[in-house]
Prior knowledge:
This protein is an alpha+beta fold.
Amino acid sequence: MFADISDSTALYDALGNAEATRAVTALTRQMGLAIKHGGGRVVKKLGDGVLGVFGDSTTAAMAVVQLMREQHLAMCTLPQSHRLAVRVGLCSGDVVEVGGDTYGDAVNVAARLCELAGPGEILSTQATVQSVSHEGVGLVRMGHMEVRGRAEPVVAYQIEWREDDNTEMLTVQDGLPSEMGTLGVVASRGRLQFDWNDTRLSFTAASGALYIGRGANCHVRVDDPRISRMHARVDWRQGSAVLTDLSSFGTWVRFSDGTAPVQLRRESCLLHGVGEIAMSVPFADEGAPVLRFTVSSMGTLTE
């Protein structure tokens, strides 16, 4: 099991080194305790992450599910600027222990799945979840995912830890209406503009990472059960907008130049000019939830 804190760098920018360090240290300690209390062993701590080992897949899965639930409850009491999200990668297999450290293919795959996981997500290999025996664990098949360092893709599953949601909602693919809400508009030089029916949202490069999804805390909230809670993230890199898919079923991007749509599965795409983003359902489906976007690095968009 690899667990780390998603986007902890932003916390240092928001709170400063001292306060952010205290928050990261406290959460890392909580991760270690969750492993220990869940029947596992902490191998080592890695700055804002933890590597742990368990004797079986069910014990590991239930430990990380409990970690996620406890972390969620703790964050609900804090202001948005202080909240942190954990992401986890799980893989089962033989390991070798040398000098108190742990090595092996399972360790490497768990680390890579942790990198691919979105905030608040648990990604696991198929072999791992097949040996999990607990009725309280929901599973969503993510399909084949490219894992750095592996010649062949890994069949991955998302372990659903939320108790108040129906996991089947994540598998709905078509035939449902969509409605979009917002958390506000930010206006400044350099903008990314989203349009959905009669709703228009504009964000600036200075506003930092943006999240798109059906979750209540997303900057661009699309209330459609086919879409993941945090479906995609937009980062600004040297004045350019980069879209990263975080979803269960993928994201498609097409541009106004008529080229074939780009399909993303936990991958990134540079947004430029004018185009559209289809979420969970490809453009070929007339009922696909589609966001229109316009990117301007010079603040030339009109309100």
